[in-house]
Write a structure and sequence with these properties.
Elements (H helix, E strand, L loop, with lengths): L16 H13 L7 H28 L4 H32 L7 H13 L5 H19 L2 E4 L2 E4 H8 L4 H17 L1 H21 L5 H8 L7 H14 L1 H15 L35 H15 L1 H12 L3 E4 L9 E5 L4 E8 L3 H21 L14 H14 L14 H34 L6 H15 L9 H5 L7 H4 L5 H19 L1 H12 L7 H7 L8 H19 L3
Parallel strand pairs: 3-5
Antiparallel strand pairs: 1-2, 4-5
Length: about 575
């Protein structure tokens, strides 16, 4: 039987659980055998995709006007009254499928994931997981409530960045020190949040029968294809192959700024993102890639068509159906994301564009995710909605690659945003960011391994010392002398260890995949793009190494692969510098 569901998913936006439930009940009750497996799976996809799309649409409505209490109430109601019972209903169907011993088409990997999740599941961990979430939210509250007095003006730390980013070196230092002082003032409160989180995590791991929380997190994050040992070798390889290249980035920066040694405020004035480059070092007029957002839209569309006509067509279809919302305005949720409308089989992209060069990179990035989503939806081999997910390590390959694949077309001569000289500056900043990211990622990842391996991770003083050791090992070329206390508390300025334990190395792997695709692109654009699109079309039907391979890279973390990647980036930077 095929379910008779609304043709337009928007007609289900006001459904309560009683409208969804009969479909899940019917699937749970229906006899499941090999002959009817495909039909059962297809029906599950129909109702599951509809429920997911309804939730995503209600969330988008809220994000577009996050200051509207009615939208917020609608979203909360959906989470509590529809999504929670739906999760339980889906759990029942997963168990039914596992118990049947059947494997739907292309479903070996999702089945592997379901098994692992079922093995880790313990009812007694549910209240602990909620407690963990609540405790982690205390971190947000502390960080979000920080205010400073900048020249008589009350500023959040984010607003302060805007005030000081374009200022003189003295202004930057003053602002940086002020922000740092404010973030150190409540460090004891964050120490307390951390120690409690570590306690909760230890209990969760014990309940699940795991040796420690790292073992638990490994299974929970479905990390089948690499081990903690591999992460340690990745760190060693970064130290060997990337740290020297990052040091050269800092040296060039010091030279451009005309300073003898770089201080933290010469790299970034945002103390919460301390290795991001947000200090202009060229001393030339600021880059303003576009005026109106319509210009960003039109030119980005041109870039995608030049990378590949299929991408241009995807973007055009999103434009026609208003499947993105780009400008920043009052009341809109911050940040940027791409999400999927599973029943309509279309992506949606949200941005907060204000006219800076970061907006161009962010649009390319999010559209990379959107193309990934399209490629999965349109692959007839991926019949079931579980196959439209993909591992986090690969999701960012899609988006980070797009940033690089689009970069040849950002000049006015190619219909893009910049003069040759401006494009060179934008590309240098972008490529340098790639080089600086790996060492920083190694610090964040190394810290998390240390926290569970050493047995000392719950002690904040030990955390300070461990972070400082890692910082000195990986971040070379910026002078932190006299700022030892500020340096040591760096782990408190990274939200991942608090909210998403162990989630960070994914970005490092993905970036390496993206640079490999870029290297191929520099030699042969056509074959690189078709490999990229092929990898994106596989959804979650194959393993992580197979996804990397299909898209033209290698899932590797050795020094040779990294130094090749760093070499590609450095050579590109060198080429761009000649255009300045
Ligand atoms: Zn992303």
């Amino acid at each position: 039987m095929a379910f008779d569901l609304p043709k337009d998913p928007r007609d289900a936006l006001d459904w309560d659980w009683s409208r969804f439930k009969p479909y899940y009940d019917e699937l749970a009750a229906r006899e499941l055998d090999a002959a009817h497996l495909d039909e059962w799976m297809a029906d599950w996809t129909a109702i599951g995709a509809l429920e997911r799309e309804v939730g995503v649409r209600i969330r988008i409505e809220l994000d577009l006007h996050s200051d509207d209490p009615a939208r917020e109430a609608r979203y909360t109601r959906f989470l509590e009254q529809v999504d929670e019972p739906a999760m339980a209903a889906v759990q029942t169907l997963k168990q039914k499928l596992l118990a049947s011993g059947l494997t739907p088409r292309n479903f070996a990997i999702p089945l592997r994931n379901m098994k692992a999740e079922a093995e880790l599941y313990r009812a007694e961990n549910l209240p602990l997981l909620t407690e963990h979430e609540k405790t982690a939210l205390e971190y947000d509250k502390i960080v979000g409530s920080r205010m400073v007095d900048w020249k008589g003006k009350d500023c959040t730390l984010t607003q302060l960045v805007g005030e000081i980013a374009g200022g003189s070196r003295e202004v930057r230092e003053e602002g940086w020190r002020l922000a740092m002082e404010s973030s150190l003032a409540d460090s004891k409160d964050i120490d307390s949040v951390w120690t409690r989180l570590m306690g909760i995590r230890a209990k969760i791991a014990k309940n699940a029968g795991e040796k420690d929380y790292r073992d638990y997190a490994w299974k929970q994050r479905l990390r089948f294809e690499y081990s903690p040992k591999d992460c340690a070798s990745f760190g060693d390889a970064i130290e060997k192959a990337v740290v020297p290249a990052a040091r050269r980035v800092y040296e060039r920066r010091a030279k451009r700024l005309g300073v003898k040694s770089l201080r933290p405020w010469d790299v970034s004035v945002d103390v919460m993102r301390s290795t991001d480059i947000n200090v202009d070092c060229f001393g030339r007029p600021a880059l303003r890639p576009f005026g109106e957002v319509s210009e960003l839209e039109a030119k980005a569309g041109g870039i995608f068509s030049k990378v590949d006509p299929r991408l241009g067509a995807y973007f055009e279809s999103m434009r026609a159906a208003r499947l993105y919302d780009l400008p920043n305005y009052k009341g809109k949720a911050p940040g940027a994301y791409c999400t999927g409308l599973d029943a309509s089989r279309k992506p949606f992209v949200l941005l907060n564009a204000v006219g800076g060069p970061g907006d161009v990179d962010t649009l390319l990035h999010e559209m990379g995710h959107a193309f990934h989503t399209f490629q999965c939806y349109e692959n007839p081999e991926l019949r079931y909605y579980q196959l439209w997910d993909y591992p986090a390590e690969f999701a960012e390959v899609a988006s980070m690659s797009m940033e690089l694949l689009g970069s040849p077309f950002i000049t006015k001569a190619e219909g893009g945003f910049y003069t040759e000289e401006e494009a060179a500056r934008a590309r240098i900043m972008h490529l340098e960011q790639f080089l600086l990211f790996w060492p920083f990622m190694a610090v964040v990842d190394g810290f998390q391994h240390w926290a569970y391996e050493s047995g000392k991770g719950a002690d904040p003083a030990e955390c300070d010392a461990a972070w400082s050791r890692l910082w000195d090992r990986f971040i070379q070329g910026v002078d932190w002398s006299g700022l030892e206390k500020e340096k040591a508390k760096g782990w408190q300025r990274k939200l991942h260890p608090f909210h998403y334990p162990f989630y960070y190395v994914e970005y490092g792997f993905a970036q390496l995949g993206a640079v490999q695709i870029f290297a191929r692109y520099l030699k042969d654009r056509k074959s690189a793009v078709s490999g990229y699109l092929h990898g994106l079309s596989l959804g979650y039907s194959v393993t992580l190494p197979e996804l990397f391979k299909a898209s033209g890279g290698r899932f590797a973390f050795d020094a040779a692969t990294l130094s090749e990647a760093a070499g590609v980036l450095e050579r590109e930077i060198e080429k761009e510098e000649k255009k300045l």
